[in-house]
Amino acid sequence: MMTNVNKTLYIPLYGKALVSRKGIILTDKKAEKIWEKEGFPLKGKSRSKWLAYYMAMRAAVFDNWLKNEMAHDSSASVLHIGCGMDSRIERVGCGGHKWYDIDFPEVIELRKKYYTQTENYTMTAGDVRNADWLSVIPAGTNAIVVFEGVSMYLTQYELKCFMQALAEHFSAVKLLMDCYTERGAAATKIKNPINDVGVNSVYGIDDPEILETVPGLSFLREHDMTPQNMINELKGAERICFKTMFGGRFAKSIYRIYEFEKR
Q1: What domains, with CATH codes, occur in the chain?
Q2: Which is more confidently placed, 19 or 3?
Q3: Which residues are within 8 A (CB) of 157 and not within 5 positions of it... i.e. 6 or more apart?
Q4: Which of 140, 221, 240, 246 is the most buried (most CB within 10 A)?
């Protein structure tokens, strides 16, 4: 049975399907297909076009970062943790890398209706709060880790344990993650799209360096969640409104995207 946290996967799925149909920001025919088949009854802010644009831009930022990292390290394994129903494996392509999509068992079960494993592509059931799933991935190798839409459901201690497990398992790691600030996490108690699927408790961090562990992953840099070139794909008043709501100081005070590494 899908838990409330698992049901949050339908929010970015809807957003990617919407922008793909509009022909802006992100092309994702698989999201269109899955959304049409699953038809999960989202409501309220979770069906907002503004949130759809935001989710699509976030996904595109992760895609672009991942493509760049894969090009720089041809031997690294790719880990997409909390993959949900996302078609990143198809948008980016594994290009000879070993690619692991990881999520809760019930999510992986649903995912296997729409995706097929190959020699280089594996879907693995696992919970980031328990690192047992790492045993399916060869130790002592390099890893490129996509950690999108997950960190806010973990306590600071759980996040540190997860990052420490990665650092201990792999020789080198590049990781990109999004997170709420503490202000953003507090704001979810008032109103947030995830409330529409029954999730009311999330966590935030203000200083990414507090997640550094020894020997572990070190904070490298912050990324722009809504690059101007993507905002420019919106037209007229939509572009102005979106930049005000999601591209300004207020938005940054709520939500951030950080890169970590272990060399």
Answers
A1: 4-262 (3.40.50.150)
A2: 19
A3: none
A4: 246
